Recover the amino acids of this structure.
């Protein structure tokens, strides 16, 4: 035979909870009522602390901020499937899961204030500093995943990236390396439709990011990223796969960035109102709310009470943030190397001379 099929890959997409709050019972993950409520609470904490950050930035109390609004199901669903001992290797839009995994909210706010001390985490909280160069963190996640494999450790590394990052060379190098060496790395891609002002269809001619993973021999799937039940279930499968030593996995969450790229952006200049409105109807928090209310597990009163306690927590974190000693100007060079190279030593001297 002259022509043979040599690649049988296909991309599977998992959806469980629709926008009316109805679930596909045969795909339901085996979660107890309290665990379902915990997923809702986790998303609400993310939404409320995100809104607070936007407000703080408007008041000049944070320098800039990248909102995670609309992506809460991705981050709450994954957090519920990970062990606290696993490692997060984030970019700049992962602060919601960072907090869910134990990074203090004050630290996340500190980072957006430009304060490097936000990267110093409590003992046992395993999270690398968020990487700003798009895609670079996936290589770091590979390195960690390789180390865990070589040391026979049970931990896994989660490398986060957006759809835009999948057009960077780093993404491809990381996946190829992971496929070849079988690193204990989960590639968690939040495809929110946009890389600042570039829509997904102008970013790539591929229909999905997941199929790029398959091309590198990395098991990959796609999930409705606004469906916390589907994200949880797919994340659990992906995490179990990596943890059991079967090698890397790529999970692509289809979601939407509801806000500006950061507070330095104006998305109304390049996005249609209709598109944003369409995605508002697919809101991850709303659909979980509808489902829980229909099961008698949630109510307006419950939400009001919970939101009240979250607001208190947020306020105490802001207070802690704003009562920190002022940061030193040398912080910008002090935490990158254990031994400073000569040019940074010079820079440090200069900073000290010019004063804080
Ligand atoms: C190497 C590099 N190129 C460009 C930028 C500027 N930049 C910051 S975020 C971004 C888009 C990222 O899009 P995506 O990966 O989809 O993540 P999202 O912001 O949507 O979460 C760009 C181009 C950068 N930080 N690093
Ligand atoms: Mg994006």
């Amino acid at each position: 035979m002259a022509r043979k099929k040599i690649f049988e890959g296909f991309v599977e997409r998992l959806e469980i909870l629709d926008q009316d709050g109805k679930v596909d019972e045969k795909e339901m993950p085996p979660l107890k009522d309290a665990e379902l409520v915990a997923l809702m609470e986790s998303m609400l904490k993310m939404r409320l602390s995100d809104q607070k950050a936007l407000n703080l930035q408007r008041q000049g109390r944070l320098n800039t901020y990248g909102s995670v609004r609309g992506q809460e199901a991705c981050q709450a669903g994954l957090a519920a499937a990970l062990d606290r001992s696993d490692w997060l290797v984030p970019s700049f839009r992962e602060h919601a899961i960072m907090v869910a995994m134990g990074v203090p909210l004050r630290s996340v706010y500190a980072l957006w204030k430009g304060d490097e001390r936000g990267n110093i985490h409590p003992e046992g909280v395993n999270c690398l500093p968020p990487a700003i160069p798009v895609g670079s963190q996936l290589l770091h996640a590979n390195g960690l995943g390789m180390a865990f494999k070589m040391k026979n450790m049970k931990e896994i590394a989660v490398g986060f990236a957006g759809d835009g990052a999948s057009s960077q060379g780093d993404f491809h190098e990381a996946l190829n390396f992971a496929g070849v060496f079988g690193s204990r790395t989960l590639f968690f891609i939040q495809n929110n439709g946009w890389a600042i002002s570039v829509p997904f269809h102008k970013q790539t001619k591929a229909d999905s990011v997941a199929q790029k993973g398959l091309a590198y021999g990395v098991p990959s799937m796609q999930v409705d990223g606004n469906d916390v039940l589907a994200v949880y279930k797919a994340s659990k499968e992906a995490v179990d796969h990596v943890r059991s030593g079967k090698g890397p996995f790529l999970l692509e969450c289809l979601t939407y960035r509801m806000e500006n790229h950061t507070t330095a952006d104006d998305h109304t200049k390049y996005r249609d109102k209709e598109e944003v409105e369409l995605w508002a109807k697919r809101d991850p928090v709303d659909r979980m709310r509808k489902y829980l209310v229909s099961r008698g597990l949630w109510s307006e009163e419950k939400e009001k009470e919970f939101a009240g306690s979250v607001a208190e927590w947020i306020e105490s974190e802001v207070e802690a943030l704003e009562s920190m000693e002022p940061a030193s100007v040398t912080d910008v060079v002090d935490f990158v190397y254990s031994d400073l190279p000569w040019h940074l030593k010079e820079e440090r001297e200069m900073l000290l001379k010019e004063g804080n």
